[in-house]
Structure formats: C-alpha cells, structure tokens
Amino acid sequence: MEGGEELKLSKRAGTIITLEELVEKVGVDAARYTLIRYPVNTPMVMDIDILRRNTNENPVYYVQYAHARIAGVLRNTQVLGISSDLSAFDPSQLSHDRENELLGALAEYPSVVASAAEFREPHRVARYLEELAGVYHGFYADCRVMPLGDETPAPIHSARAALCAATMQVLANGLELLGVSAPERM
C-alpha cells in the first residue's frame, strides 16, 4: 500500500517494486525487517506510508525504539549510580505483574530462536521482538526504574535496571539475527 491505495504487484502487468526502490522509499532496516516478518507462504501487505513513519504503527521502529529507550534509561541509571549488572541481579526484588510478564517474555527467547532456526522461519524472531517490545513498553509505563526526586536508589531500582539491560540485550541479539540495526538513540 502507498498513499492509502493498494498496489497489486505483478510482473506481467508491470506493477513491481524492486528491492532497491523499496529500500529507497523506507530504508534498509524497515525493508529488511518487513520482508522477514511474514511467513514465506502467506501474502504480504506492506504499507509504505507506515514504514516511513516514526510511530508505534511501524513495527521496526517500535522494536528499535524499545532498544533505544532502554539505552537511554540505562544511561540515566548509570549517572545515578544504579547498577544494571546482571551478575548481581536479585529477582526477589521483583513482584509487580509487569516485571513478571517481562521476565516470562525474556525466558521465551531461546526457544523462539531455536524454533525459527529449526523450521527456517525468521518471522518468528521478528514477531517475538514486537511482542517483547510491547511487554517492555508496558513495564516502562507501570514500573519506575529510577527513583523520583530526592528518593534514594534502592535494590528495586537495580533489579529493574538489570531487567532493562537483559531486555536490551535480547532486543539487540534478535535484531542482529535479522540483520537490522539496534540504535541506542533515536
């Protein structure tokens, strides 16, 4: 789709968009991600206008933004002296439903990658990353990672920062598997 109009691609009718044209219109990351996020045996509907936007409607932007948002959060926690070191992660500090949902989503990553490799279906990784980004955005909205105002950093802040670091690592690894960049700023 482009300009709200569906374009039926057909070599016979001469209505094709080359990969080069697609990359020109939406960029390398959006083109690659969009082509990967669909199973090979299903029709693909690609809305060029959405892929040009920096909004949550754009799936590659949504995932990359989650990664960049976490990078920003971790920069801020570092300034406050809050550790995000995974080796010191204390899961007993986490009790909020959003924290547990994020931990559960992170635990799915190895099996998602294994099944994507076994069945040669990279779209599984792309769809998982979108789900993980959504879970992270919910966590971010409901759980403060940094203390407010004069509040002293507490173990909960370190546990949440470590959870952020783990999420950022999984997003970066998944995007790398797909050949898509994982920006730290957007």
Which helices and strands occur, and which strands form pairs?
Elements: H1 19-26, H2 28-36, H3 48-52, H4 59-79, H5 97-118, H6 123-142, H7 155-178
What low-confidence regions span 5 or more consecutive residues with pLDDT below 50? none
Structural class by helix and strand composition: mainly alpha
Helix share, percent: 55-70%
Number of helices, where a helix is a run of at least 4 consecutive DSSP H or I residues: 7
Major sheet summary line: none
Estimate the mean pLDDT confidence. Answer: 90
Distance between the termini: 26 Å
Note the overall shape: elongated
Strand elements, count: 0
- CATH-defined architecture of the domain at 66-178: Orthogonal Bundle
- Per CATH, the superfamily of the domain at 66-178 is Isoleucyl-tRNA Synthetase, Domain 1
SSE succession: HHHHHHH
What fold name goes in the CATH topology slot of the domain at 66-178? Answer: Isoleucyl-tRNA Synthetase, Domain 1
In percent, how much strand structure appears in the residues? under 5%
Textual characterization of the structure:
This protein has 186 residues and is mostly helical. The chain has a domain at 66-178: Isoleucyl-tRNA Synthetase, Domain 1. It has 7 helices and no strands. α5 runs antiparallel to α6, α5 runs parallel beside α7 and α6 (123-142) runs antiparallel to α7. It starts with 18 loop residues before the first helix and ends in an 8-residue tail after the last helix. 31% of the residues are buried.
